Sequence to fold (411 residues):
Amino acid sequence: MKVNFTYVRHGETLFNQVRRMQGACDSPLSEEGVSQAENTASALRNKHFDHIFCSSSERAWDTAKIVSRYQDTEPVPMKELKEFDFGTLDGEMIPALEHIIQPHRIADDWTDVGGENCELFRERAERAFSRILPECEDGDEVLIVSHGSFFSHLMKTMFTDCDQKEYIERRKRLGLPFVPNCSISEFSYEDGNYRLISEPLEAEEYRRLQNKKITFHFVRHGETVFNAQWRMQGWCDAPLTENGIRQAEERRETLRNVPFSTAYVSTTERTRDTAAILLEPHQITPVYDKRLREVFFGTYEGERIADHEDVLSRCFASMNFTEAGGENKKDIFSRLKKFFTEAVDEAEDGDQILLVSHGGLYLCAVEMLTGLTMRDLEKMAAGKNPTPNLGYAVFLYENGTFSLKKAMSEE
Fold:
């Protein structure tokens, strides 16, 4: 029988942050730890698991519940999957007791302070797998959410053809953690042997190995009443004009034969109405996502552009509207990064995806994904509007990176 295992370490905790020993003792996930778990969950969202097991420590159980959110299987907590036991040194501040902790690390024996050594750990790990494997059938995929030192000791005591010492030394030379928080590893069990398939990878590294190629077709909404009046229009809204409807109908014909797998649409009505026209030839139910909304311009929303031309020009140059209670580039990039990460994770290799959104958001997306600035796009537009209504652009995602295949234009 062969069983494939995916192993995830828990997210960052309070004790990880302050560098306190953390084995059998526990501390809660930090905000960063929750974010790491959500990122790893998205990276694994298209991988099906037949079984999910986790350490009974709350930090691992909480991580498992987040990582398994796209699965139809609930994690089963197991005490046998708890972290390596550091005895009475558990909970101590590492910098303060480095002179005591380091000799135990070198010997990898903590029995003199009531903890484990490699032999005791192996016995416990074997008990864990003697519970897990009878639940499995040949070819099953199993997710385990546990701890960093637990995995390092699996490498040392149970994996065949795995030089844990060389791995540790290599990570030290590179200045990298041995098993990063929420990293993803893979190993297999077959005929009594455990074999390491892939060393711990952070979610971004794991994504790059998926070798997906995805095309994103970005379309700005049609002309609205506020566009025609030259008013600021971000999170506020105005209906499409007759010209805006006509623009959408024309764009519909140019995209008629594109085999879209998914359509993501900003939640404002002008984009929803535009998308409804574009999708008439396609059997797709759009996914509405607030992260695709336009830049929030704060109290400048609804103002006539001509009345604030100088200040708006300055705000657009830095994409910073916080002086009016709006967003800045950091805010926008944060929501865009999460959106594109999840969209890529959910997509299959070769997918064609439609995005219906806004002009300002397009400028931000281009800079975040490719590094091209608004000034670069203005030069490429050669005197034309770089973000026209119903303008059309194409992004290509391949080997973990984005490129702008076609800058936005009316063509």
